Amino acid sequence: MKRVLIVAGLILVLAAGGVLAYVRFRPVPAPARGDPAIAAAVAVGALLRSETHRLTGDQIAAVLPLLRVLRDTDPNDVEPSRALAAEITRVFTAEQQAELARLREEARARREERAAQGGGPGSGRPAVRDRSELRRRLLDRLIRRMEELG
Fold first, then answer.
1. What is the pTM of this model?
2. What is the 3-state secondary structure (H, E, C) of 47-109?
3. CA angle 124, 126, 131 (to 5 degrees)
4. Rounded CA gap, 50 and 54, in Å?
């Protein structure tokens, strides 16, 4: 009986150690990655800069109020942000969506190349401490730019 208790105690200690090691050493996901507001803002910005797939006046008029609501949405409320980002992308034409897919692929290839050359994922860029601040600044700039255009 004593042996069984010792083995059970040892198993509990090892399990607790495993849980603590997992919690302490697991990689922390980058909060901006997967943020639908940032993804939508980057997509709109790319289309505003595009020579061949630029947003039309009607598209700007449709997207602008959605961006304002997205800016004022709590970054921790992922579902409302995701729904607003989906509404924004529905405004894009099939050609614009294809262009965005091409640009995403190019960006992914550049990241992989930079990582293969020894540069980190954020190499050359200052670290952003507060992702909600990044989100707000990005959306504010985009909204101002669109207001100037439309």
1. 0.69
2. HHHCCCCCCCHHHHHHHHHHHHHHHHCCCCCHHHHHHHHHHHHHCCCHHHHHHHHHHHHHHHH
3. 130
4. 5
- Amino acid code (one letter) for 37: A
Q: Decide if 54 contacts 48 (C-beta within 8 A).
A: yes
Maximal CA-CA distance, the chain: 80
Which SS3 state, helix, strand or coil, does residue 35 take? coil
Closest among 42, 21, 44 to 134, alpha carbons compared: 42
Contact 138, 38 (CB under 8 A): yes
Q: Could you report the per-residue pLDDT of 27-85, keeping only the tens digit for each? A: 544 444 579 999 999 999 999 999 999 999 999 999 999 999 999 999 988 999 999 99
11: left (phi over 0), alpha (psi -120 to 50) or beta: alpha
